[in-house]
Write a structure and sequence with these properties.
Helix content: over 70%
Number of strands: 0
Number of helices: 7
Radius of gyration: 18 Å
Shape: elongated
Structural class: mainly alpha
């Protein structure tokens, strides 16, 4: 294989790592908004599962904090807690639907997001910012003023 082909494959693998990251960040952002806005889907789900509505506010705030932590540079141990919290959120949602006797149409996606959170945490570089990593994948660099 040529150096160019190897480089393209390497870059493709680096970009593929962002699939679970993007999925988790998008779901967390949308989920936080839905929880805090208490849209009808959230109200119906919480009523069906037997959770009080104030729990949606708690989850919305926790998801917002996790999102801010993951996207902010530095503080690797805090990021560990954010990812762990998201695993508990998505794993808890899947478990709640399983306990209610729901089929895979209800618990499969939360389980997918729990797994994607594990993958996102495992595959992202340690310690740096998400923005800096994206910039590096795109091949752009910040120039320092002279």
């Amino acid at each position: 294989m040529s150096t160019r082909t190897t480089s393209m494959i390497s870059r493709g693998l680096k970009l593929a790592r962002w699939v679970p990251v993007t999925a988790v960040l998008a779901e967390t952002a949308v989920g936080a908004y839905w929880d805090l806005a208490r849209i009808s889907y959230v109200r119906d789900s919480f009523d069906y599962l037997g959770y009080p509505m104030y729990f949606a506010t708690i989850l919305g705030i926790a998801k917002t904090a996790a999102l801010a932590t993951i996207l902010t540079p530095g503080h690797p141990q805090t990021k560990e807690w954010a990812y762990a919290g998201l695993v508990f959120v998505y794993g808890g949602a899947a478990t709640s639907h399983l306990a209610a006797g729901d089929g895979p149409d209800k618990w499969a996606m939360p389980l997918f997001f729990a797994a994607a959170t594990f993958a996102a945490r495992a595959w992202l570089p340690q310690g740096g910012s998400t923005t800096a990593t994206l910039r590096g994948l795109a091949g752009t660099r910040r120039t320092q003023p002279a």
